[in-house]
Amino acid sequence: MIRQLPLATKPNRQLSYIPEFIIQNITDYLTFLGRFNVQLFESLSSVNEYVTLVLVFMGDANRLRNPHLRAALAEAFEAILPNKQHGGGRTLNSSFAEAIFMHHPLIEHLPRVLLDVFVSIELTGQAVAFEQKFNYRRPMYEILDYLWKFDKHREQVKKLTAYAEEHIDDAEAPLVLRFINLLMNDANFLLDEALS
User: Fold this and answer.
1) Please, are residues 90 and 38 in contact by the beta-carbon 8 Å criterion?
2) Which residue has the higher pLDDT, 185 or 160?
3) Are 177 and 171 a contacting pair, CB within 8 Å?
4) pLDDT digits (tens, 9 = 90+) for 102-152
5) What's the distance, CA 54 to chain centroid?
6) Fewer C-beta neighbours within 10 Å, C or N terminus of the chain?
């Protein structure tokens, strides 16, 4: 069982031989369940392992290099959110979701992992369509909004912010500053588009 993130060890070389479509298939299936078959999703015994998989791979570009797949993991994580209208009109049980968001052993790393993926989408080095970046980031907004209602997660964001304040003059900008910069750029772009 993984107890701490980021993982201290470098990824095993054999991990690079596993096709990414395996993670993509797991992600697609669980996203589908979360949206269209909530009862089956809630009855899965391996939800904790799935959350661990998402946190480990979404939060570490050395373990999963594909930024599009890392963003898809965030979308799959969004399917766990409660009180979200899913296909068929049912919503996910809020006590089920809160148990995951409060008691999973690695869940305290979720805010950092989300911000890291949010920033890395911008830095893919590829010509990702601007609209595609918004599609990737939309589930992250939903998750961050949901996380904000928990003191545990708010404290993690405050720690990241305090770290950013201490290291504001570093050569490489801290994660929170890069996140805020991209968030403001997106907001300015959307406002400009709306006004024109």
Assistant:
1) yes
2) 160
3) no
4) 888 889 999 999 999 999 887 665 555 677 888 888 889 999 999 999 999
5) 8
6) C
One-letter amino acid identity for 36?
A: F
Residue type, 21: F
Whether the predicted pLDDT of 166 surpasses 80: yes
Residue 71 makes CB contacts below 8 A (sequence gap 6+) with: 117, 121, 136, 137
Token readout for 153 is 């997660």
CA distance 58 to 133: 16
Neighbours of 149 (CB within 10 A): 10
What the block records as the tokens of 173 is 């900008």
User: Per the omega criterion (within 30 degrees of 0), is the bond before 139 cis?
Assistant: no
Report the candidate in 60, 105, 110, 57 with the shortest Cα–Cα distance to residue 80: 110
